[in-house]
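pls design
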């Protein structure tokens, strides 16, 4: 399921009564056996605004502009704006890794984004708070509507959101990364167990902390 669908499913339980129920992992062998609905909401959409979806949409857009589309064009023996007139026999006339546009093996891994300073790919924010944005952006995707060579997505804004959501996640030392939470708990069934009283207090403090960050 997509991140949007996971969030929508989790948010469909609007009654906070359900937040402290423990979710059943979708896969065997998952060590996290006391993960609650509240923690799933906080992992995927801590501010309740689908902000992570929007942020990852920017990452994906830049990835497509800076790696995927140029690489596919190079494999077709054409330019990025002129695919239709290229003879199909030219497709992969040379090995993919001989093209400069494709020579970024890191970009073929899961959960990666385009690196805006030196090129190539680094972990996306969906991998959690360890993902970071360098201050450099010389290799960002440009705003084609502007005559100035400015980035379509400003580094300051990307870093600001990353710092904000990471501040929320890092409050709980046991928090799961969004991609891990999606893989194992998206659309999961409830167990009959709830968090104990002490943990309910911890979860309420966690939610209150993130709510405060959202409004700051």
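designed seq:
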């Amino acid at each position: 399921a997509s991140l949007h669908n996971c969030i929508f499913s989790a948010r469909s339980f609007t009654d906070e009564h359900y937040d402290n129920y423990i979710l059943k992992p979708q896969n065997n062998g998952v060590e996290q056996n006391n993960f609650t609905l509240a923690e799933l909401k906080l992992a995927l959409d801590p501010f309740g605004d689908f902000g992570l979806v929007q942020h990852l949409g920017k990452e994906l857009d830049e990835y497509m502009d800076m790696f995927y589309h140029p690489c596919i064009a190079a494999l077709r023996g054409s330019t990025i704006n002129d695919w239709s007139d290229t003879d199909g026999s030219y497709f992969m006339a040379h090995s993919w890794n001989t093209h400069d546009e494709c020579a970024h093996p890191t970009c073929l891994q899961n959960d990666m984004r385009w690196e805006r300073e030196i090129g190539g790919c680094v972990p996306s924010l969906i991998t959690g708070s360890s993902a970071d944005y360098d201050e450099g952006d010389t290799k960002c995707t440009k705003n084609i509507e502007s005559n100035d060579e400015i980035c379509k997505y400003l580094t300051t804004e990307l870093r600001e959101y990353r710092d904000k959501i990471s501040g929320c996640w890092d409050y709980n030392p046991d928090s799961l990364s969004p991609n891990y939470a999606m893989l194992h708990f998206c659309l999961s069934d409830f167990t009959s167990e709830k968090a104990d009283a002490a943990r309910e207090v911890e979860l309420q403090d966690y939610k209150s902390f993130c709510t405060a960050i959202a409004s700051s």
